[in-house]
Design goal:
single chain; alpha/beta; two-stranded antiparallel sheet; 14 helices; 45% helix; 21% strand; globular
Length: 397
């Protein structure tokens, strides 16, 4: 390797697995060069979260990052970790700096049949990770009164509409998005579809939301014109439909496409898709910026329950698949960008060694009851990684 990969360490059980994966599956085989950032909660607190910003800026510089799962603290974590403040989600900070879109894809096995019986290929959820309800402001109306939506333009334009005339207590919410962010989302989606040679579906509810959701559709239509010839050349389809129609079509489909969703829809649908395919522990996640920067991670959290068991010295059987695939994805992308076919090959072989292990029935406990057609053997995380290493060595030999 010549250009480094940005490496972002994390928290709790995934931090333990991170070191095990590096020691067992990466460092013995790859001349690894990384720009290391510790995004563990104690270090974020110590640096006033500047470490997260530095990691995101490094990703912009080097183009490829791999990230361990991290804690987004709540009130309980404030006390547990003795924090100075309730720090924001590192993922949210990184997404904002990279202006990126999150693509989540399940890792599928022949022995784990999706809950939706006609799904044959993975469905990738593209989630617009900005605005909407996640950046909303809210008011609890305690009495009768009028709620208004007001816009005061810098150049004197003023627009005012009545939201609702309350006859008693209620709640109201204001949310926003920007043309710039929606446009970046569209570019990332079309580029990723071309990169992975998959059809792209996009869905909103523009029949009801005639300005907000309609703006998403208008911008996607505009941006598609820039990619239309590439889509035609590759035989790919861009398809828009209403979100409720999309849900029905997705359930009836065979899979094998990218489904682009607004922020809330993507949040919900990625969990639905991952669970229907088997397990959130088998869901990859990659953040892609419109100018082609990539940050790979697992879609799941820090596996707190297993971490507390680990601290007591108890054996855990935590599934490391999504974290391994974050590493394989980052190494393969670094190899593609730097013209290193050996590194691309290693990324592919690492994933295939994981499949060899699972197909032989050597699995972590979470997969035992999901498998059909083979008799699985549950092992702990360490044994699972050693079995993958054996298969990897066979493949590389």
């Amino acid at each position: 390797m010549t250009t480094p990969i940005v490496e972002m360490d994390g928290d709790e059980m995934t931090r333990i697995l991170w070191k095990m994966i590096k020691d067992e599956l990466i460092l013995p085989f790859v001349d690894l060069k990384t720009e290391y950032f510790d995004l563990g909660l104690p270090e974020r607190d110590k640096t006033d979260d500047k470490i997260t910003i530095e990691a995101a800026e490094a990703t912009k510089k080097y183009g490829v990052a791999v990230k361990c799962a991290t804690i987004t603290p709540n009130a309980q974590r404030m006390t547990e970790y003795n924090l100075h403040q309730m720090w924001k989600s590192p993922n949210g900070t990184i997404r904002s700096i990279l202006d990126g879109t999150v693509f989540r894809t399940p890792i599928t096995l022949d022995s784990i049949h999706p809950a939706v019986r006609n799904w044959k290929k993975p469905i990738t959820i593209a989630r617009h990770a900005y605005g909407d309800v996640y950046k909303s402001v809210e008011i609890r109306a305690e009495e009768e009164g009028v709620a208004k939506l007001v816009f005061e333009g810098k150049n004197g334009q003023k627009e005012e509409v009545v939201i609702h005339e309350f006859k008693g207590p209620g709640v109201l919410q204001g949310m926003h998005n920007t043309d710039k962010s929606i446009r970046s989302f569209a570019h990332s989606c079309f580029k990723f579809a071309i990169d992975t040679k998959q059809d792209l579906w996009f869905s909103t509810k523009d029949t009801i939301s005639k300005k907000y959701d309609a703006r998403f559709r208008e911008i996607f239509d505009e941006v598609f014109e820039e990619y239309k010839s590439d889509f035609e050349r590759l035989g790919l389809e861009y398809f828009y439909t209403l979100i409720d129609d999309a849900v029905a079509r997705v359930i009836r489909s065979n899979g094998g496409f990218i489904w682009a969703c607004k922020n809330y829809d993507g949040d919900v649908m990625s969990d639905m898709v991952s669970t229907a395919f088997g397990s959130l522990a088998m869901m990859t996640s990659v953040l892609v910026s419109p100018d082609g920067k990539y940050e790979y991670e697992a879609a799941h959290g820090t596996v707190t329950r297993h971490y507390y068991k680990h601290l007591k010295g108890e054996e855990t059987s935590t599934n490391p698949m999504a974290t391994i695939f974050a590493w394989s994805g980052a190494l393969r992308k670094r190899g593609e960008l730097d013209g290193l076919p050996e590194l691309v090959n290693f990324g592919n072989q690492l994933e295939d060694a994981c499949f060899d292990t699972l197909n032989a029935g050597i699995v972590t406990k979470d997969l035992v009851n999901l498998m059909e057609g083979i008799t699985p053997t549950a092992v702990n995380s360490e044994q699972f990684l050693k079995a993958i290493r054996e298969n990897l060595e066979k493949r590389l030999a």
